[in-house]
Amino acid sequence: MDARLNLFGSPTAGKFLKHLVSAGQAVTDSGLPAATQELVKIRASQINGCGLCTDMHTKEAAAAGETAVRLSLVAVWREATVFTEAERAALELTEQGTRIADAAGGVPDEVWANAAKHYDEEQLAALVSLIAVINAFNRMNVIVQQPAGDYRPGQFK
Questions:
Q1: Distance of CA 34 to the CA centre of its chain
Q2: Residue 76's pLDDT is what?
Q3: Is 94 exposed, middle or buried (0-12, 13-18, 19+ CB in 10 A)?
Q4: Alpha-carbon dihedral of residues 150, 155, 156, 157, nearest 10 degrees?
């Protein structure tokens, strides 16, 4: 399978991706726990059907020490006992923020309040930014049908 468009060979897409990566780096350098960041990226990518990002972030999480059990249960986190309350709040905010078009009125106040119980203002800013960035990456990859499966941890660093 080949992508519809070579995002990496396009000057316009390359410039845009450079800015997205830079925006993502601001989140990476924030106080939001690294494990939470990967869980958020995985869950949004699953919802959006982005194979490349799901492949990339599950492999990056595993390389960083995340367990196979937790990675296998991200899609069904509500029924899983392996996530902290803070991670669960982040995953709920991720789902609501990713499915924003499906919810009249956007993210419910209860979802925001639950996340705010676990994260300070800067961590919330990082979480919101991360959800926005991963959704942008997902949409680009899904639109061009970017193939998945060959990602190696650290490949884009």
A1: 12
A2: 98
A3: buried
A4: 160
